[in-house]
Amino acid sequence: xxxxxxxxxxxxxxxxxxxxxxxxxxxxxxxxxxxxxxxxxxxxxxxxxxxxxxxxxxxxxxxxxxxxxxxxxxxxxxxxxxxxxxxxxxxxxxxxxxxxxxxxxxxxxxxxxxxxxxxxxxxxxxxxxxxxxxxxxxxxxxxxxxxxxxxxxxxxxxxxxxxxxxxxxxxxxxxxxxxxxxxxxxxxxxxxxxxxxxxxxxxxxxxxxxxxxxxxxxxxxxxxxxxxxxxxxxxxxxxxxxxxxxxxxxxxxxxxxxxxxxxxxxxxxxxxxxxxxxxxxxxxxxxxxxxxxxxxxxxxxxxxxxxxxxxxxxxxxxxxxxxxxxxxxxxxxxxxxxxxxxxxxxxxxxxxxxxxxxxxxxxxxxxxxxxxxxxxxxxxxxxxxxxxxxxxxxxxxxxxxxxxxxxxxxxxxxxxxxxxxxxxxxxxxxxxxxxxxxxxxxxxxxx
Length: 447
Known about the structure:
Structural class: alpha/beta
CATH superfamily of the largest domain: P-loop containing nucleotide triphosphate hydrolases
Strand content: 15-25%
CATH topology of the largest domain: Rossmann fold
Number of strands: 18
Radius of gyration: 25 Å
Number of domains: 2
Largest sheet: 8 strands, mixed
CATH architecture of the largest domain: 3-Layer(aba) Sandwich
Shape: globular
Distance between the termini: 83 Å
Helix content: 25-40%
């Protein structure tokens, strides 16, 4: 029995398949056959290497089920000259829907996984390859976790992703800006897919505004409409070289808590003239409160931290234990106050601090070493700005790649409100925190 994929790669797809790089990316506009290319590569890796184990993922299960998995199961295959689907071909032994896996006749298996639920579940896997569809929906930590699972014996180790570009995010930085020899990427526009229906591209050009044409047709990595912090540029004067913070500057910490999502921590300093510097950061998922507390203490060694701010939702008490995240940090010797989290006002304040003043500098500056904050600020978008819409941004930003942006918002709200205490003191812990704030503010103002 002769089985082969009914697939003739376009020129850019052929470049992607032919690359010997360990990690590959296929990026471009809508309809440039990105998912078809990635699906074909996943099938080929399973066919070429018996007993291979691959993971095919997308951020959410509905998208995985309705797009990527469907593309692979229904991929056209010729069996002895007759056209059928991969799922129905003799090369597939079984599709196990309960396990969400595809078993091949040669012993290879593809696991289909929603990445938002998979971070802890992939740690024990011995993968030969992985494929992430719409890679820009995935965070860098998930990509690196998958890279660490490439350890299956007697197969070719490779990881690859396909995506529409989403600005100068971690994908752009890793594949385009500063790639290592292990990384290779292909760029394709919508125009290059000769299999698209007649008039498809012309219809898009007539319907969409210029910024969306750049992204969704030309596949541009340039920043696009919908960015929250257009004032920020990832260069001087917004980004400054690291320097030693003077001892007399007011220092404080702002934290956005997560477990499955990353926990972000930012160390801030305020100069005597009121300029704010984000001078250190921590950004990682799957960390317990006790671990985060220890990291904060270690990184803050011998520094005088005057204030600890946290996402106000962290004061909410668990229904079973009656305890909050703030309580957990207190048990570990760090006493956090709930930050102000009025979204629209907070964003406006940060935007004001990023504006260039008459002296040519912004009031808020980021140390070059704070790479996670710099990455998020360049991709933080307003929610629900759909393809083809040409209207003012809606009121809420996306809850995606926003952890460092949120803690920056808490920090600026804190500085913006100094030295006025806005809330009454309740309880002895709040009294001590208020006294600490009072003395810290007095010392800073005196400096």
